Amino acid sequence: MSPDAPLARLQWDSAPAMTGPPAPTADPTTSDPWLALWQRHFGTPEDLSLQTNRTRLPLTREQRRGARVWRSFTNGHSQRSLANPPQGPDALDLLTRIKAQRGWDMLHLQGLHPDWARDLTQAAGVLGLVAKVEHEVQHLFTDLGEAPQSYLERLSGSGFKRLAKSERALNRVTPVSFHQDDPASTIDAYLAAEHHSWKAQQGELLTHDQATTGFYRDLSRMPGTQMFTLRSADQILGGFLTYGHDSHVVCLKTFYDTAFQKYSVGSLIIRNVLLHLLDQGFAGRVDFYSDRAGYARFATGQARYVDLVIWARHPRAYALRQMRDALQRHRQQ
Questions:
Q1: Does the N terminus or the C terminus of the chain have fewer Cβ atoms within 10 A?
Q2: Is residue 2 part of a domain?
């Protein structure tokens, strides 16, 4: 793809992108295999790519409350774009390329590294565009490589005595065992078991729609994907799905059967996954991809990500921006 093209129609090397492992970047969910998978199931024929010598930013097209939007390859299943720190002064180049295009009102970039949000905001000012941070999140993580032995002692120490007690109580009700499963051959059982979880009540099932189901079925066949389950005989009581490489594993999805909720099944699975990774010699980052309090007891730190909106410079975009700001003020009241 030529870096001289302002915007290039997005193309992927289909076989390597869909079947190869993620490159050892800081964030597996912004790697080429991941982005190719996302485009296959959630993208549109109009998807484009902003390209510089150091950075590629794929964008998808959507209509939102009358606004013509370019959005990063993000949704509830892929939460980040430009998640690694910038490697050079690319922000002005990227925005210059998108500004030159016709037929857009808003650029919506989600899950940015804070340095990217800063650089893009400054570049927007230079170009006469309006940039606004709309959301920030602190995603929890644990770095197992910093002090693996002390972390192992922490998982086995006094702070987790109640969790160990819950596991013993669960085993008295029904003997359970922890498994690392082959994702491709287990995905159907995983999806079926999820219907007995809290996600069924909250509308977050991976079988919610065809695109989401297809995304996770294909993900289960990709190198770098791991699946873990907690089982009672052949019954799956909880599951955990990760994707990553040798230095960074992202925890994508977890669920547990609500019938066993009082036994802290979700925390038991996370604890067993971490113990398994330590046993395998994993010395990288386990990225919980979430700010949920349930992960806090396992975390050693948190990383900040920013959602940034940049508006085009024309009367239509100005009117839409005023409407969006008014709606957000109303929601905050």
A1: C
A2: no
